[in-house]
Amino acid sequence: MPCSPQEIGSLFLFEKLTDEQLGRLCAEGRVERFEPGPVYTEGSPATCFYVMLEGTVVLSRRVGADDVEVSRTSQRGVYAGAMQAYLGDRVRQVYTNSMRVTEPTRFFVVPADTFASVMREWFPMAVHLLEGLFFGSKNTQRAIGQRERLLALGSLSAGLTHELNNPAAAAVRATATLRERVGKMRHKLRVISAGTYDRETLAGLIEIQERTAERVAKAPVLSPLEASDREDELADWLDDHGIPDGWRIAPTFVQAGLDLDWLEQVAAAVDEATLPSAVGWLSYTVETELLMDEIADSTNRISHLVDAAKQYSQLDRAPFQVADVHELLDSTLLMLSGKFGPRIKVVKEYDRTLPRIPAYPAELNQVWTNLIDNAVAAMNGTGADDGQGGQGTLTVRTARENDRLLVEFGDTGTGVPPEIRDRVFDPFFTTKPVGEGTGLGLDISWRIVVDKHHGTLRFESEPGDTRFQVLLPLTAPAADDTPEEPA
Questions:
Q1: Which residue has better confidence, 381 or 433?
Q2: Is the dihedral of CA 219, 220, 222, 228 positive or negative?
Q3: Residue 270 or 155, more confident
Q4: Is the distance from CB of 325 to CB of 355 less than 8 angstroms?
C-alpha cells in the first residue's frame, strides 16, 4: 500500500522528524494491511519493526502450551517487533512476544536493518544510552544471578560437609577400633597356638571362625525386646561355662546373629580348658567383621553422597537430556538435608509410574533448591508446631496432570500474604532480611521452568498450607521451538 510521509509524520513516534527523514522512512519502509490473524510469532527471527496506523492489536507471551494475552489496544501509533535491532548481531534478534490483529489493521512496517541504521545515524547518543541500559541490565542480572547460585552453593556445601562428616568420622573410629581388635586377635592366636592342641582341634577352631564370619554377614534384624532376651540367654551361658566378661561379649554375639546353638557347637569342638580362649578369639573375629561392615557402610554412604552431588550438579551429563525427575528431587533433598534439622519433617509422595522427561536437569535442580529453600525459610520463621513434635512438614509430590508432569512442594509455613502474591515472581523482590536473599530465586525459577522448559510455575497459599507447583511437558518441544538458554 502507498506510504504517505504526512500520515506517518502524524504518529507520535515520528512527529519530530524532518521531511527528509520521513521521506527516507517511506522509501525504505512500507504500509501493509493485515487481515484478522497472526502477524508474527514469539521466538521467530525479528525482521521488522511495526507501527500501527489503524486497527486493533493483541500482544501475547507463551506460558507453557498456552499464549497468555499481555496487551490489547487500538491506540494509533503503538509499536512492536524488532525493537532491539539497533544492537545488531551482538544479541540474537527474535520476537519476544506474539502479535495478532482482531480486525483489518494497517501497519507502517520498517525492515529491521533500516530501523537499526536510522537509529544509529539519527539518534547516536540515544543508541549509546539504550545500549548501556540494555547490557548494564544484563550484566547486573547475570552478576546477581551468579551471586544467587554462589549463595546456594555455599549452603549446599555446608549441608554436604555436615552429611559427609558423620560417615567419615564413623569410618575413622571403626578403623582405629579394628586395628586394636586385630592386634588382640593376633595375641589370642599366639596363646592358642602355644597350647597343646592337636591338629584336628585347631582345624575345628578355624572352621568355626569361618562359619562365624558367614553368620555375621547374614545376621537377622531383631527387635529391641528380642535382642535383650537373647543377650540375657547368651550372658547366662557364658557365665555358666566360666567365660569372663560374658555380659560384655553377649551383645556383640547377638548383633552378629549368634545364638545358644552356635555356642554349643563351639563348646563341642574344644575342651573345657580351651573354651574361654576359643570364645575370646571368636569374639575378636565377630568384632572385626562388624567393624569392617561399619567401615563398608560408612564408605558406601560417602560414595552415595558424592554420587548425589554429581547428580545434583550434573557435571558429567549433557545439559539437555531425558531425566528421571525423582532422581533429581532425591539428590536435591539429600544435598539440602542439612537445612531441615530435626524439626522439619520431609514427606515424599512420588508417583513412580511417571516417565522420564526431556529437560535441563542441572537447572531443574536449581528450581527445586529455590523452592525448597523458600519453604524451609517460611517454616523456620513460623515457630509453630505441626502437632507431631516438628516445626513443619515439607511435602514433595509428583503426579501426572493431563499431558504434563506435576512436581509440587508443600509447606506448613505462614503462607504468602495476599498483598504480595502478585509480586513473588518479580526480579529483586524478597521478604527475607537484608543480606539473606537477592530476590532472584523465584524469577530465575520462573525463567527456567516457563521460558526454557515451556512449563508452568504457579502457587496456592493460605496460612499453614502453601504449595508451589511446577508443570513440565512430558515430551520435547519441536526443534524450532526449543528455547534458548536464559541470558
A1: 381
A2: negative
A3: 270
A4: no
- Do strands 98-101 and 105-111 pair parallel, antiparallel, or not at all (unpaired)? unpaired
The string over 370-396, giving b where at least 16 C-beta atoms fall within 10 Å of a residue's C-beta and e elsewhere, is: bbbbbbbbbbbebeeebeeebbbbbbb
Q: How many CB atoms lie within 10 A of CB 308?
A: 20
Residue 275 pLDDT exceeds 60:
yes
Give the count of beta carbons closer than 10 Å to the beta carbon of residue 68: 10
Residue 449: count of CB within 10 angstroms of its CB: 23
Work out the pLDDT band at 143, boundaries 50, 70, 90: low
Q: How far apart are CA 90 and CA 28, in angstroms?
A: 24
DSSP, res 482: P
Find the mean pLDDT for residues 92-118.
88
Residue pLDDT, tens place only, 235-257: 889 888 888 888 888 888 888 88
Query: Each residue of 452-468: pLDDT tens digit?
Result: 888 899 888 888 889 99
pLDDT, one tens digit per residue, over 177-216 is: 778 777 777 776 676 666 666 677 677 777 777 877 777 7
Residue 95 CA to residue 313 CA, distance in Å, equals: 32
The residue behind cell 499481555 is: 70
Per DSSP bridges, beta strands 344-349 and 392-401 are parallel
DSSP notation for 132-183: HHHHHHHHHHHHHHHHHHHHHHHHHHHHHHHHHHHHHHHHHHHHHHHHHHHH
- Please report, in angstroms and rounded to a whole number, the separation of the first and last CA atoms in the chain: 39
Q: Could you tell me how far CA 48 lies from the centroid of its own chain?
A: 40
Dihedral angle sign, alpha carbons of residues 217, 220, 225, 231: negative
Q: Is the pTM of this model over 0.70?
A: no
For residue 135 the three cell numbers come to 547490557
Nearest to residue 429, comparing CAs of 247, 421, 15, 161?
Answer: 421
Residues in the chain: 487
- The H or E element that residue 479 is part of is none
Q: Where are the alpha helices (DSSP H) in 195-274?
A: 199-217, 224-240, 246-255, 260-269
Residues 6 or more apart whose CB falls under 8 angstroms from that of 145 comprise 440, 444
